[in-house]
Amino acid sequence: MMRGRGLLAFSVLLVLATITAGTAHAQSSGAPDRPMPSGPIASQSSDAFNRIAYCPDLRRVVTLALTKEKFGAIAGKPRHGDFFDTLLPLAGWKECSLYGTRTYTCDSRDLASVEEAAKLQVELLDEMKSCLGEGWAEDADRSSSAYAVLRTSRIPVAMTVSTHPNETNGYVVRLTLFLRSGG
Q1: Number of domains in the chain
Q2: What is the C-alpha to C-alpha distance for residues 75 and 57, in angstroms, rounded to an integer?
Q3: Could you list the residue range(s) of the whole structural domain that residue 174 is in?
Q4: Most buried pick, 30, 39, 124, 153, via CB within 10 A?
């Protein structure tokens, strides 16, 4: 058991050391009022970083999930139940919030049909994989047509990208990023 913990700690340190350089661009180009931690995102996707509006924010959120505070640094006003506003919404998304300290969620723009939502879901999955870099992939065993799981074996963070009906008889694509057990 100690050997497994030591290997996990070594793996996390190795990932952080290897990838910290990849977030240097994010740290130097971000808004000054946003938390800018370094972290475990592959640096190979600088094109995605510049092309996808929410990419810098998504990378920060993933990095924050691995800190001691988790999402505490970006927790805003309390909402109903265990939900909080977030001080770090993804650019171009809406209704971003936190659930406790281990879950971050955002909705896409409103869509008129389930077909539009399914199409956007596929586009967003491709963008997210490009943004987060090598190692992030859809887990086909845990996905369906309306629900995709995106994860990496390098860190204990995963996300779901799913279609949901909204309040106006339309649909949204919902991103839910969470810290997996053991993280």
Answers
A1: 1
A2: 15
A3: 1-183
A4: 39
